[in-house]
Design brief:
The structure is a single chain. The chain is α+β, with helices and mostly antiparallel strands. The protein has three domains: 238 residues, no CATH class; 77 residues, 2-Layer Sandwich (Alpha-Beta Plaits), CATH 3.30.70.1380; 60 residues, Ubiquitin-like (UB roll), CATH 3.10.20. It has eleven helices and 19 strands. A four-stranded mixed beta sheet has the order 6-1-12-11. It has a four-stranded antiparallel beta sheet with strand order 14-15-13-16, with helices on one face. A three-stranded antiparallel beta sheet has the order 17-18-19. It is globular and about 70 Å long. 39% of the residues are buried. The model has no long low-confidence stretch (mean pLDDT 88).
Length: 396
């Protein structure tokens, strides 16, 4: 039987914070030594400990980060540089930066600044960086292919921050979660922190749902918060399992559209990809009476067929879609990180029968380096490919 893709569902019973997310994932099976090993690439001085605790009779883990006292605050650019240079596994760097950038955009909106001008205080401290990046690494170590989360509880009261007392939930938490479903339990504590909100938003694009997808249960982990509530246990539960009905079968979903603007079609493509399509694209076609039109297409798992079909109809206004199963042959793929004189760049490598046949620098990394150095994009590509070949002993 084909192995079902690994899914992680979070139940934020007591809320969500960076340390709770990291602890829950380690309790669910992520290797703590592996997490610490990858975090060492951040070039930060810290010690990460996981302590067993009991919350209302539930065995859980608490994550504790110890580090020297800090007086400097970090910018988004500084954090991104540290994450890029850490050689994190899989989507670890992508998810980490997605969370930090969402925070920077939210803080910038509150303070009237651009994301690049924002100076992180609590969120830029070593413990918050370790919690954030460690959570993204832990997901990769668990092999998570998809993630879901229940609506995040807000809580109430007042919390102390670098700028002084702030209402709960913190303004940044609400900005991060704009457009997402939340809950307002009568608990006089901060239940979801800005870091926790940003991580969950990055994992799910803010699409929180109280109903997890059908799955075969595997492992369960509980991450504990520090506070103790009267009416509910302050834990975050992570449930790991295999998606039912997602044994690897793929389908094509497509529709002919002749009365929709290009902007609408572009937004539809982005939405299909965010919702979980493996790929999405447009094909120019000619319909009856020689009308010019587009065929909007998506490649997705069979488990997403109905949801993506409905999404396509809602976004484009078409009255129906076609869908049919397809097969797919894929190469083995891996991502390497190379160090260039002016920065780091991820490189995607495809291989067949043990032989690398395509080497492609990550476009976003290459563009970033081109913008920072003024070098032509083509030169960055060439130097990244050469650096990888040299690191593997294939040149010189």
């Amino acid at each position: 039987m084909a192995q079902r893709p690994t899914h992680v569902h979070f139940q934020p019973v007591g809320g969500a914070a960076g340390d709770m997310i990291l602890a829950a994932l380690v309790a669910a099976g992520a290797d703590p030594e592996g997490v610490v090993g990858f975090l060492s690439g951040l070039d930060l001085e810290f010690r990460l400990r996981f302590e067993p605790v009991e919350v209302n009779g539930i065995g859980a883990l608490h994550a504790e980060v110890e580090h020297p006292e800090e007086h400097e605050h970090r910018t988004l650019r500084e954090i991104e540089a540290a994450v890029f240079s850490a050689n994190l596994p899989g989507r670890g760097a992508e998810l980490s930066i997605k969370a930090f950038r969402r925070l920077a955009e939210s803080e910038g909106k509150i303070h009237g600044k651009s994301p690049e001008e924002v100076t992180f205080h609590e969120v830029g401290a070593t413990d918050s960086i370790v919690d954030t990046v460690g959570s993204c690494v832990a997901l990769e170590l668990l092999g998570a292919k998809s993630i879901s989360c229940g609506p995040l509880p807000m809580g109430g009261g007042v919390v102390r921050a670098a700028h002084g007392p702030l209402p709960v939930p913190a303004p940044a938490t609400l900005e991060v979660l704009g457009g997402s479903r939340v809950e307002w339990p009568d608990v006089p504590h901060e239940m979801t922190t800005p870091t926790g909100a940003a991580l969950m938003w990055a994992f799910t694009d803010g699409g929180f749902t109280a109903s997890p997808p059908p799955m075969t249960l595997g492992s369960v982990g509980y991450g504990a918060g520090k506070a103790r509530f009267e009416r509910r246990p302050n834990v975050l539960r992570a449930v790991v399992g295999g998606l039912e009905g997602a044994s690897g079968g793929l389908c094509i979903i497509e529709a002919n559209v002749d009365d929709t603007t290009g902007e609408t079609l572009g937004f539809a493509l982005e939405s299909l990809l965010k919702f979980g399509a493996v790929d999405a694209w447009l094909e120019p076609i000619t319909m009856k009476k020689s009308r010019g039109a587009y065929k909007i297409c998506a490649l997705a798992g069979e488990d997403l067929r109905d949801a993506l079909s409905c999404l396509t109809m809602r976004l484009t206004g078409t009255l129906g879609v076609r869908h049919y199963p397809v097969g797919r042959t894929v190469a083995e793929r891996r991502t390497e990180t190379v160090v260039l004189p002016y920065g780091t760049c991820r490189v995607k490598v495809g291989s067949l029968d043990g032989e690398d046949y395509v080497v492609s620098p990550e476009f976003r990394d290459a563009v970033r380096l081109s913008n920072e150095t003024g070098l032509p994009l083509r030169r960055v590509y060439e130097e990244a490919r050469t650096a990888l070949a040299e690191s593997e002993g294939r040149v010189g």
